[in-house]
């Protein structure tokens, strides 16, 4: 599959521009500094004025961390997802939500995938985390319980993670790409819990509502170090199951 730039309509351009400008302004005081710096650095290939061209984004990443965009129709099997991450290929759809659904989608669209996920993949440490996460998923792909635990880790970090600066700032794509979730995650009215690998990998989540709790890291170095801890946790669980 590939992106077909000639298929986008004036309505699509309006949706992209509206979402980008609204979230760009909203994140100025609520997004983490690493994301905001990445957005500045990518302004020639990722901005409000035009729907992003994946070829231009891929060329940008060739000179950075080496990630490339893999076009998909929508959600893909978890096996394929981990395999792609382990090859530094991040999935993105090419369709955009309708004007009537600016604030809520059941399935991620291109704004979520590109505006939410892609910028931080230019950050060396976050990039390494995502890459190693994919390799860890491949390692345990035959272990159903391990994959569930890894999906939880993904959910509470890459999708809905926050990071402590002077206060909680958003870095997870599910927050970054959502006006309402951004405001919720960076308010003083929601529960913020410090990151603990075992708690995260045992923690259930819901996909159909705004999050009631967010997990906070103190740095992307802490996030990267969680890969080794996750591997040890899964090895321990596997050993316990085999010797039960």
Could you explain how this protein is built, in words?
The protein has helices spanning 10-27, 33-41, 54-62, 78-85, 110-117, 124-139, 144-159, 173-176, 179-185, 197-201, 220-242; strands at 68-71, 89-92, 162-164, 168-170, 191-194, 213-217. The chain has 244 residues and is of the alpha/beta class. The strands form two sheets. It has a four-stranded mixed sheet with strand order 4-3-6-5. The protein has a two-stranded parallel ribbon with strand order 1-2. It starts with 9 loop residues before the first helix and ends with a helix. The model has no long low-confidence stretch (mean pLDDT 94).
Features:
6 strands; globular; two-stranded parallel ribbon; about 240 residues; alpha/beta
Low-confidence stretches: none
Count up the helices. 11
The chain-level mean pLDDT equals 94
Q: Secondary-structure element order, as H and E?
A: HHHEHEHHHEEHHEHEH
| Total beta strand runs | 6
Radius of gyration: 18 Å
Principal-axes shape call:
globular
Gap between N and C termini? 46 Å
The proportion of strand residues reads 5-15%
Briefly note the structural class of the backbone.
Answer: alpha/beta
Which strand order does the major sheet show?
4-3-6-5
Helix content: 40-55%
Give the biggest beta sheet: 4 strands, mixed
In short, what is this structure?
The chain is of the alpha/beta class and 244 residues long.
């Amino acid at each position: 599959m590939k992106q077909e730039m000639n298929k986008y309509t004036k309505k699509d351009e309006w949706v992209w521009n509206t979402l980008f400008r609204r979230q760009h302004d909203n994140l100025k005081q609520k997004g983490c500094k690493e994301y905001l710096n990445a957005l500045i650095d990518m302004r020639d290939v990722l901005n409000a004025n035009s729907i992003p061209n994946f070829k231009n984004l891929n060329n940008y990443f060739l000179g950075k961390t080496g990630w490339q965009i893999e076009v998909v129709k929508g959600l893909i099997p978890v096996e394929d997802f981990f395999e792609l991450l382990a090859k530094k290929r991040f999935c993105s759809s090419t369709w955009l939500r309708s004007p009537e659904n600016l604030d809520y989608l059941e399935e991620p669209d291109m704004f979520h995938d590109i505006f939410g996920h892609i910028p931080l993949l230019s950050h060396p440490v976050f990039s390494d985390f995502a890459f190693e996460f994919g390799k860890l998923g491949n390692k345990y792909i035959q272990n159903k319980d391990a994959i569930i635990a890894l999906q939880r880790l993904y959910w509470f970090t890459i999708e809905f993670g926050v990071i402590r600066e002077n206060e909680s700032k958003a870095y997870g794509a599910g927050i970054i790409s959502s006006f309402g979730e951004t405001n919720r995650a960076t308010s003083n009215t929601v529960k913020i819990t410090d990151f603990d690998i075992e708690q995260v990998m045992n923690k259930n989540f819901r996909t159909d509502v705004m999050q009631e709790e967010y997990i906070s890291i103190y740095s992307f170095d802490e996030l990267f170090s969680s890969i080794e801890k996750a591997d040890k946790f899964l090895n321990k669980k596997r050993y316990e199951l085999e010797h039960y």
